Amino acid sequence: xxxxxxxxxxxxxxxxxxxxxxxxxxxxxxxxxxxxxxxxxxxxxxxxxxxxxxxxxxxxxxxxxxxxxxxxxxxxxxxxxxxxxxxxxxxxxxxxxxxxxxxxxxxxxxxxxxxxxxxxxxxxxxxxxxxxxxxxxxxxxxxxxxxxxxxxxxxxxxxxxxxxxxxxxxxxxxxxxxxxxxxxxxxxxxxxxxxxxxxxxxxxxxxxxxxxxxxxxxxxxxxxxxxxxxxxxxxxxxxxxxxxxxxxxxxxxxxxxxxxxxxxxxxxxxxxxxxxxxxxxxxxxxxxxxxxxxxxxxxxxxxxxxxxxxxxxxxxxxxxxxxxxxxxxxxxxxxxxxxxxxxxxxxxxxxxxxxxxxxxxxxxxxxxxxxxxxxxxxxxxxxxxxxxxxxxxxxxxxxxxxxxxxxxxxxxxxxxxxxxxxxxxxxxxxxxxxxxxxxxxxxxxxxxxxxxxxxxxxxxxxxxxxxxxxxxxxxxxxxxxxxxxxxxxxxxxxxxxxxxxxxxxxxxxxxxxxxxxxxxxxxxxxxxxxxxxxxxxxxxxxxxxxxxxxxxxxxxxxxxxxxxxxxxxxxxxxxxxxxxxxxxxxxxxxxxxxxxxxxxxxxxxxxxxxxxxxxxxxxxxxxxxxxxxxxxxxxxxxxxxxxxxxxxxxxxxxxxxxxxxxxxxxxxxxxxxxxxxxxxxxxxxxxxxxxxxxxxxxxxxxxxxxxxxxxxxxxxxxxxxxxxxxxxxxxxxxxxxxxxxxxxxxxxxxxxxxxxxxxxxxxxxxxxxxxxxxxxxxxxxxxxxxxxxxxxxxxxxxxxxxxxxxxxxxxxxxxxxxxxxxxxxxxxxxxxxxxxxxxxxxxxxxxxxxxxxxxxxxxxxxxxxxxxxxxxxxxxxxxxxxxxxxxxxxxxxxxxxxxxxxxxxxxxxxxxxxxxxxxxxxxxxxxxxxxxxxxxxxxxxxxxxxxxxxxxxxxxxxxxxxxxxxxxxxxxxxxxxxxxxxxxxxxxxxxxxxxxxxxxxxxxxxxxxxxxxxxxxxxxxxxxxxxxxxxxxxxxxxxxxxxxxxxxxxxxxxxxxxxxxxxxxxxxxxxxxxxxxxxxxxxxxxxxxxxxxxxxxxxxxxxxxxxxxxxxxxxxxxxxxxxxxxxxxxxxxxxxxxxxxxxxxxxxxxxxxxxxxxxxxxxxxxxxxxxxxxxxxxxxxxxxxxxxxxxxx
Length: 1193
Prior knowledge:
Blueprint: E1 30-36, E2 41-47, E3 54-62, E4 69-75, E5 78-86, H1 91-102, E6 110-117, E7 128-129, H2 132-140, H3 149-162, E8 168-172, H4 175-178, H5 183-186, H6 192-198, H7 207-221, E9 230-234, E10 240-245, E11 248-252, H8 274-280, H9 286-295, H10 298-302, H11 310-318, H12 322-345, E12 352-356, H13 357-362, H14 364-370, H15 375-378, H16 384-389, E13 397-398, E14 407-410, H17 415-426, E15 456-461, H18 466-477, E16 483-490, H19 496-504, E17 516-519, H20 520-528, H21 532-547, E18 552-556, H22 566-577, E19 581-586, H23 597-600, H24 606-621, E20 626-634, H25 641-649, E21 654-659, E22 667-668, H26 669-676, E23 678-682, H27 685-690, E24 692-693, E25 695-699, H28 703-712, E26 718-723, H29 727-735, E27 742-748, H30 754-766, E28 774-777, H31 782-790, H32 806-809, H33 825-838, H34 841-848, H35 859-872, E29 876-879, H36 885-896, E30 901-905, H37 908-918, H38 924-927, E31 930-933, H39 940-954, H40 961-970, H41 972-981, E32 987-990, H42 996-1007, E33 1017-1024, E34 1027-1032, H43 1042-1058, E35 1065-1068, H44 1079-1094, E36 1100-1104, ...
Parallel strand pairs: 1-6, 6-8, 9-12, 12-14, 15-18, 15-19, 16-17, 16-18, 19-20, 20-21, 25-26, 26-27, 27-28, 29-30, 29-32, 30-31, 32-39, 34-37, 35-36, 35-37
Antiparallel strand pairs: 1-2, 2-3, 3-4, 4-5, 7-8, 9-10, 10-11, 13-14, 22-24, 23-28, 33-34, 33-38
Helix pairs in contact: 1-3, 2-3, 7-17, 11-12, 18-33, 21-22, 29-30, 35-48, 36-37, 36-48, 39-40, 40-41, 41-42, 43-44
């Protein structure tokens, strides 16, 4: 069977706009929409050049095939042509007349043609480009829509002839439903052969209207389409309703044909099928019945044939006609019945009830009556004043009361506009962009607003976190278009939590391997080697790759054995990801299963508060923000205000305060099977997935006693555990399945005997006596399986026949939360419902808020970006100090991590001896990326090339060739600089045992400054816990002038941007703004002005003090009322001279124990960087990588 889906989603909800005059621009793109009937063709033209369809004209050709054909064309609301008594023989001539009528009205040609198709069947599941196969499919559905599809297909064929050089697109009315409805919603309870052979099922109609209205509703609610849950009522002479979940149809009232469902103008809607046979026996033919149900029923039939139009029915009812009043009441009650049904299907989570269509948009009283008394069911209440005036048919109007939890909207539909939008999208006339979460300007949060969470949230906790993670994920889905789930450490062979989220939230668009960082075995190996840095780097690499295609990612705590040290690891991972943490605190942490006295007083205990305070402190030490705390299992029927106040007293944001819900303690047969490793061998799979287990009975001896015990047991839903060889017990319990006390049979030990299999298979096949779920454990004795089950069930019972195991099964076992499965519907629903109801509004808003505009880049993320970019394009870096042990160790690390290609200068034997002594081992692959060159004994050709090149560059300074050879041979910095000058190397790092002057002199003499720079300056990357900052100049310029200071500022901003730090430049001084005067401040003020004129793309502020530049609280005081983008959020700090800069970076480095990478030189034609003589191996690695990246530019 042909399956056709739309090429791409639409960018957003289109709006019908009518322009007063056509543009004559050459880039107009026109879409023609056609709705071909048996004797008429409606058409419209839309300009899509601006990205949103704009209606230009519309019209109709009527009475095709007669001598009285008529063509009417309306342009910008003005009738341009209205000609009657034409002789238009057929659809071909009708389309030609449309083409000719449009030609003088359009400044350009038709770019695409969209065709309304009433029935797409089960084959065409979305808007699709037309080819012969598509036309054949439209024809094949003629039996399902005999009045429409033949004409639709005919219109498509002739239109392809008339506009043969443009794409044609079909937009089926059924596709909105058939693309997403599940079998339980679309199958009739008829013989399967009728579905297989004749396609008899529910298809639904008005899909184009529902697609348009859903987008309009999403825009009104400020949500992405995928987050919308609604009941949409398309009410007109043809009427239907649709349940929309996550922006997609899950059920609709019309079925195989448009006859099923609501009461319509002349169609009956739902009716007992027995009526047909009853009337057939009394002489009604098939055609009589068809005419009766489609043309004489509905409002017309109920009113005694008085009228089929609701306006006329309403008028008659107002005049006292009882039949008309009844017709209106039946119409309303049918709508109300389906609202109730769809509210259940949507599990009570309904954003809005929406009315569209002629009656839906224009009949305020019908809306009022349909929504009456829904306050208790859905929290839905209509505002009578708003409702009365919402009848203009043009605006999207919220007619509900202010505090209604389920809104009521009137949304005018526009099917032609939707057809034009879908056609333009499929034909590539509209540039489709990723939908934004909220199409509103970003506003500053109020002081009472929780800080925005942004695109990632890390979840950890002291107990079970899965329910909270599920609830947070459901909440995130309402705010973000595409969500993801990431596990830093995976359990290994199977990670059930990852599998759960992958299936429940349809996250299977990537392989499982993309959704986790490392396995538990890998993590333990690296932690045992005390190499947490490599572990976090591996996790971060996988996470960043996964995050690229997501709007939001929920990161679950690492699945690693034991809790000791896990918070430290979680903190390190969260810091690297720049992820705020949500901490989950469960009240049953002590394992008693009972509330503490403090809990019953609506408070947390002292130990619990101390634990939460310690968590917040530990996270702060890693520069990780605690976004909020979820407190779970609180006593029900309390306000929890005291708990909220306690958290506030600790400076902790409340994410959610969740009352105890025993749904999470109930266990199903499927969950036990998953826990103990058992398979369903007999019984109904749906019962297996949903059957609750309250207790366990181990059956060992007497069958009679066992059955008596089961019959008399207080506990329902018992799971019977029995050895597979006990055929008597197995068959007895299976036959006793009529007792409510049997949840299932769990067989242990060896395989089930053949005779037992045969009897069970026969019972299962007969279906006369439904078998309970019968499971077979894959391994384990009865004792082992019973012990495993005991961790899942709350209570266990012993029978008189199980005395030898009495010591095991009579012991009360504390409840543990069983593993949730994708089929654990009660638990999934409980998680969603709890967070729908109890997630704090402040936290919910933060969850949907975009990242802070002043978001910083953390040290770990900064280093990761550096290393990733370096690996993509390895550069040749010279290390002139090959005899320095630190340089050799750093070289080994650089090579093993495949970051650069190295040229190490020095005596080969001495360098290898240092490497051997330091334990540096380089793989054979890495050895291919390094050269060791001894300037005193190198290849003669290379040496002469370098010496002669030096001579040519410096002979104007009186340097002869011999002196040139001497300098190249004796000074490794000169040797390296000349290699760069001649294109034999890309960059150089020196200074571990050379002075800054010795390192930089050859670079300045030979490489010179880059175009646009008069001076060379330097910066340090300060890898502070709360974000990377750039300090300059801290190494080169002693007392820069205003012009030089401006160049340093601009160069530092460019360097910051190059390395992923968003530049916000602070020109530092001992005073801020206009608060002081003096020569130095005047210089800084002048430099700030010149820097702004040199570079307008980055914010620059000065003079400004250091504390006001980097501390938002200080800035709020010193820059009160200012709209400075820099104050409190500076990322680039420019010091006024070398004295302050050098002391400043060293003071920050030592006081905060921060890594300072640099100095990084800027302004040279090719990168040369100077190390501090006290540098570490890590300093060298970072500086080499930065040098490599500089050379990539």
